[in-house]
Amino acid sequence: MITRGKSILALIASLVMVACGPAPELGDIMESSDQALTGIIGGKDIAANESPAQTTVVLYDTAAKNVACTGSLIGNNLVLTAAHCLQRDPTKILVIFSTNLQRANMEMARSVVGAMINNSWLSNRALAKDTGDIALVKYQGTTPAGYKAATILPSAAALRDKSTIVIAGYGMTDATKRTGSGTLRQAATTIASTKFSSSEIMVEQRIGRGACHGDSGGPAFLYSNGVYYLWGITSRGYADAKSECRSFSIYTNILYYMKWLQETARALMLKNQFNFTFS
Fold this sequence. Notes:
Elements: H1 8-20, H2 26-32, E1 44-45, H3 51-55, E2 56-61, E3 66-75, E4 78-81, E5 93-96, E6 109-117, H4 120-124, E7 135-139, E8 151-152, E9 164-169, E10 185-193, E11 200-204, E12 219-224, E13 227-238, E14 248-253, H5 258-270, E15 274-275
Parallel strand pairs: 6-15, 8-13
Antiparallel strand pairs: 1-10, 2-3, 2-5, 3-4, 4-7, 5-6, 6-7, 9-10, 9-12, 10-11, 11-14, 12-13, 13-14
């Protein structure tokens, strides 16, 4: 019998052992997946009662045994994330509600029952701009107490160059050392260019604060009058040849995709379905 408090990481290790015979010890699994168990560069821990923590979740890949991505709740059992986060089988992903993966247990996890990417990602993902890196994931079961849907920014007109924004995620804290704590973190940075492309915004990271590996799919907020307004999804680094997360990052502007989001949300609410084939 699985105890109520048993951690997700320990549970996954035990399930692999039962299903497949000999398996690595949990310590080996943790060491091999340490790259993913980390947080925003230059960020600070987010308390569970803070607004970003109430709308941000982990997408954990049970097959790869690491964090697949970060995501944002947008209501009706739906998580907004990046399309490239679903390049592995989304049916193997757990949506985990916790500010710290190490302390999470199965009561905090929900199975994925649907996932849809924007169709433009299939044709545009190799392009330098307008890649369509956006997806919706549907999870099964109720949303845990303390969590809620993010408030989406009403208008893109509020986004301007040099505006201060808040980003959040579970990705690396140090891309060179590839280390971190496995804790949800947030950091303040600025918009470098709202005109990077028609559907994407470039964010400044040269100040020592920004997104990194594992933060993909995570939120970007504009904070105003006590409200965190969601406007962006972490997509990729830019002008970062060594992949050290010290230059710029590109965020998908979700306001550009509002019609797609509304239509896809309705479709997933009506029926569990997947469209994630990558050629």
